[in-house]
Amino acid sequence: MLRTDILPNEGKNIILVYRNHPLPSHPYAREAALIGACLEEQSPGAFWMYAGNVFKNQRQIARATDPADQLLIVAKSVAGVSGEKLDSCLKSGRAEASVARDETLAQANAVGVTPTVFINDFRIEGLPSRQDLFSAIEIGRRQSNSAASAATA
103-114: per-residue pLDDT in tens? Predict the structure, then answer.
């Protein structure tokens, strides 16, 4: 929804930043986050394709004998992904470092629910509706305009 409905219309006004926060209650979340971090290194587009495919296939992944192996299959099926580069990244520890930085940031911002969306100081916990996102963007726009007006006054 963010990438298809909002960014095409609001892209010049907002920046979308994704951070990993694999919760322990999700048995394969950490592996998914590590793979995602490695795909982001290859291409932001590959990351988003992978994330969408994981979301669409989460039941199948959860039921797999080896969910981590299933995640790798999903990742390597994304167009343009180098399986060799993915494997190398996972072995290197770069993904662990990236996910650890994201987890530290999540703790500093008291994030305990995924997804958590921040728009300026406005926080939405859980999966927001399209209307919630547009409302939050409008609130953020008004806050930014107020701050800009105060700074020039």
Answer: 999 999 999 888
Give the SS3 label for residue 129: coil
Integer Cα distance of 117 and 2 in angstroms: 11
Question: Would you say 139 and 119 are in contact if contact means Cβ atoms under 8 Å apart?
Answer: yes
Of residues 138 and 94, more confidently modeled: 94
Helix 29-42 with 83-92: angle, nearest 10 deg? 120
The rounded Cα 110 to chain-centroid distance in angstroms is 17
CB contact at 8 A, 67 and 61: yes
Q: How far apart are CA 144 and CA 139, in angstroms?
A: 9
pTM exceeding the 0.85 threshold for the entire prediction:
no
Pairing of strands 116-119, 122-125: antiparallel
- Contact between 53 and 35 under an 8 Å Cβ cutoff? The reply is no
Give the confidence band of 95 by pLDDT, cuts at 50, 70, 90: very high
CA 44 – CA 61 distance, rounded (Å): 22
